[in-house]
Amino acid sequence: MYPILFKAGGFAIYSYGFFLTLAYLGATFIVWREGKKRGFNEEKLLDLSLLALIAALVGGRIFYVALNWGYFSADLKSILYLWQGGFAYFGALVLGTFVVWYSSRAWKWPFFQIADIAALAAALAFSIGKFGAFLAGTDYGIQTSLPWGVNFPNLVGSRHPVQIYEAAVSLIVFVLLSRIYVKNIEKSGEISSGVVFFDWLVLSSLARFFLEFFRADSTLLAGVKLAQILALIAFSCGLVSLYYFNLRNFRVDLRVFLKKASSIDLKLARSKFTRR
């Protein structure tokens, strides 16, 4: 592993921090480019990108520290050692989404249009950032005898390079979301609000659930990996929201369902009356 890419005198470039910077730059470029096309203020787009980054780092770190408090309680200063890695995906997701929502509301921007763009940026950023986690030796996988297994420092046996799996899957998700995003614009001339965001939530959560089977540093809750529980919750929320906001008209479906249910009840009542 290469936790430090290179040193120059007393100055060191950490691989995790380097790839986090690349991830931020890539995400910022997408937010700026697509937001500008949609007519949003460029300076505020850059502000939003920075605020979302800070929120994701803080949220991810807080959740990670909470899950691994036994380790950090012995040395509280290590909580601030962000360059060494250690971020929880769902903590970053929750606080990052909240900041995007709050900023959009404060600037009177349509949240779901911004969220669609942010989802593209997040998928790319996550893919890039996972290479930093791989080089830093964090988020390691379970032992394996497969030929592509990797030996990590201070760990026994060859391990699944689950960070690379996550990076590859997130890149695929980014490509799929990009196609959906472009098709929505070509079809209607504007972003179909929320479609890309909810698709990202569904796809990334589903990927997270299955990739957790290969991770070795997961927190357990009643014998089940906490990340998988959260992934199922996020997947369900994304699927329900996708249906409610985009795929179908929930209110119309509900009226049709109630109408059919009432007609069935009426037929049953008539059949009982006829028998009498």
Describe this structure in words.
By secondary structure, the chain is mainly α. The protein has one domain. The strands form three sheets. Strands 1-2 form a two-stranded antiparallel sheet. Strands 3-4 form a two-stranded antiparallel sheet. Strand 5 and strand 6 form a beta hairpin. Helix 6 runs antiparallel to helix 7 and helix 7 packs antiparallel against helix 8. The radius of gyration is 23 Å and the shape is globular.
Helix content: 55-70%
Shape: globular
- Look at the structure and give the mean pLDDT: 85
Whole-number radius of gyration?
A: 23 Å
- The figure for the number of domains is 1
What can be said about the biggest beta sheet? 2 strands, antiparallel
Count up the helices. Answer: 9
**Strand coverage percent:** 5-15%
- Strand tally: 6
H/E element sequence: EEHHHHHEEHHEEHH
Q: Could you tell me how far the N terminus lies from the C terminus, measured between alpha carbons in angstroms?
A: 82 Å
Which structural category do the helix and sheet elements fall into? Answer: mainly alpha
Poorly predicted parts: none
GO biological process, one term: lipoprotein biosynthetic process
Keywords: Cell membrane, Membrane, Transferase, Transmembrane, Transmembrane helix
Subcellular location: Cell membrane
Family: Belongs to the Lgt family.
